[in-house]
Amino acid sequence: MPVYKAPLRDMKFLLNEVFDYPGHYATLTSGENATPDIVDAILGECGKFCEEVLSPLYLSGDEEGCKLDNGEVTTPAGYRDAYQQYAMGGWQGLSAPEEYGGQGLPASMGLLKQEMMGTANWPFSMYPGLSLGAMNTIFLHGTEDQKQTYLAPLTEGRWAGTMCLTEPQCGTDLGQVKTKAEPQADGSYRLTGTKIFISSGDHDLTENIVHIVLARLPDAPKGTRGISLFIVPKFLPDSNGDVGERNGVVCGSLEKKMGIKASATCVLNFDGATGFLIGPENEGLNCMFTFMNTARIGTAIQGVGPAELSYQWALAYAKDRRSMRALSGKKEPDQVADSLIHHADVRRMLLTQKAIAEGGRAMLYYSARLADHMVEGFTEGDDKKAEKYDDKLGFLTPILKGFLTELGCEAANLGVQVFGGHGYIREHGMEQIVRDTRIATLYEGTTGIQALDLLGRKVLLTTQGGAVREFTLNIANFARKHLTDKRLRPWALELLKLTGQWNLLTVRIMLAARKDRDVVSSASYDFLMYSGYVTMAYIWLRQAAVAVDKLANGGEESTGFYQAKLATTEFYFERLLPRAQSHATSMLSPSKNLMQLDAEDLAFTG
């Protein structure tokens, strides 16, 4: 099985030359210590950890999986040692506040770390990844006592965190949550209920696990307005803040899954477990959205990660594996056949993977700048700033999560295709990437849910199309600046056309929905995918503009690197972006062709 190599050259190109992160960090209070030298050192050390420690555990962790014995979960061999190295390296607290033991670096630094970890070994990265959401939730909504009790051990990595939403009778529809929380005389609560699909719900990596749990108070209103949020630790902290007595939360079973088998996905039973209210009563869902948005951005990495990993391995295989002769003539006459890399259809698959991986990474880094400003607004108590950037990021979040994970699945499958029959067997690792990636379009909201969130809530309901108008104006302004460059002009013109079309499509759907509410649901998936393709086109044009400038004036990278960026941009605009038009056609199709068939007539069996 090939090894993972951290794509540091592409990462630094985006950070230093495309999005000017040094200048960006200079505007942030948290960016004071994020100097170029420090950032380079962190990226290098993290890449080394991912390549040498996490990547070798990827296949073995899948083969062994997690084990459950008497309510206690054991992770695969090597995971505990790897996690201890992770914690000892201070990686968990990279972007955490200094007052709770963190390094206080910008939030985007944590995303860069997560990308490399998630690409090298996604199942492992989920354990510390879930903790980050718990940390953010407690930091933003917890009392000072709760922060003092939980944030330091979470930041150090001695404790881990989870989020507990889903129940057997409900997934996305959280209004159906039944877990009960009964007030106690000492101010705590007794939680009773069952949660399912809880990632990292139990494991042996840390001495304690802090569950963030949605539950109902006895007099709570029905639906989502009656849900509260609670901290429920596996072990109750004692008076010194150390691990105390065992709490009433136990892993009832491990889910038998298609992939990410080294990540413990648990059924958790809360049997009178002691919990502590976090945030106001009946405001749990609003507080949880902090956690969910963090998780969705993190999940978008599982679109970029598998595309990158599958591309790296498929590219190495295509250079080494020989089959037939290229149609344009022998490329390696001294060999029995030409390498796969010389066949145009194999190039199509590899370039698709490359365009998805590098385009998706750039979309994440573009959005991470917004996240930095949003987090700083929250931490500094600047509600206006926090809300401004939360709205900007909120528009992009469903696109990042939905679009990139769908394309991540496509890229992973293309990797298997490049390997042919060898991709279908376990020893090369390609089929594992497919299995591990498939969950990404499901958890933290399926693609359909992301699409409804984007079109129904962010575009139509909340902003009446304003979110699209604002974002497309930024795209159009950028495209106009490059109309005079003959290399960039065709792509800039295409983007200008698409910004107009995006707004027109939004208006047409808005008008159609006044007569037929099903239009919103029937159009939402195609609207999300269309939005994703146009957004990635904008991001590729930004990379191409930098490449043109650096080829003329010199840059940090080689001529070949910048030329590859231009060639990949051309491939994206000519081979992948045309897909947007099929989505444009489909989203305007009436809902009747979906809804007219009676449910009982969908199938006829003997």
From TrEMBL:
It is an enzyme of class 1 (oxidoreductase). Its cofactor is FAD. It catalyses: 3-(methylsulfanyl)propanoyl-CoA + oxidized [electron-transfer flavoprotein] + H(+) = 3-(methylsulfanyl)acryloyl-CoA + reduced [electron-transfer flavoprotein]. Residues 282-453 form the Acyl-CoA dehydrogenase/oxidase C-terminal domain. GO terms for molecular function: flavin adenine dinucleotide binding; oxidoreductase activity, acting on the CH-CH group of donors. Residues 46-157 form the Acyl-CoA dehydrogenase/oxidase N-terminal domain. Residues 163-271 form the Acyl-CoA oxidase/dehydrogenase middle domain. Its EC number is 1.3.99.41. Keywords: FAD, Flavoprotein, Oxidoreductase. InterPro entries: Acyl-CoA_dh-like_C_dom, Acyl-CoA_Oxase/DH_mid-dom, Acyl-CoA_Oxase/DH_mid-dom_sf, AcylCo_DH-like_C, AcylCo_DH/oxidase_C, AcylCoA_DH/ox_N, AcylCoA_DH/ox_N_sf, AcylCoA_DH/oxidase_NM_dom_sf. Residues 475-598 form the Acetyl-CoA dehydrogenase-like C-terminal domain. Involved in the assimilation of dimethylsulphoniopropionate (DMSP), an important compound in the fixation of carbon in marine phytoplankton, by mediating the conversion of 3-(methylthio)propanoyl-CoA (MMPA-CoA) to 3-(methylthio)acryloyl-CoA (MTA-CoA). Belongs to the acyl-CoA dehydrogenase family. This is 3-methylmercaptopropionyl-CoA dehydrogenase. It comes from Marinobacter manganoxydans MnI7-9.
